[in-house]
Design a protein that fits this description.
The structure is a single chain. This protein is an all-alpha fold. Helix content is about 65%, strand content about 0%. It is globular, with a radius of gyration of 13 Å. The relative contact order is 0.16.
Amino acid sequence: MVRLPLTPADVERGQRLGALLRHARGERSMLETALDAGVSPETLRKIESGRVATPAFPTIAAIAVVVGLSLDAVWAEINRSDREAGPSTAQLATREQLAS
């Protein structure tokens, strides 16, 4: 299967996704998070570093569950423009989770 080249927007979304997951993981180890999500630590490392800009949906869904993010929050964050001001939906959701 031939993959089309990623657009700059795809790469940017992948970087936002990686940063979001890395932030949500917090102090939890990458190994523990990956194993709990059923993915390899190498896959999680590549996603968090932005090297895999378009990971499979089931992979992201599994990681999101483990780190306590809703898929709505993930979607909102990765589709946000860098020009938007204020805290992201994911940041607000994380704050709400910490306050609970």
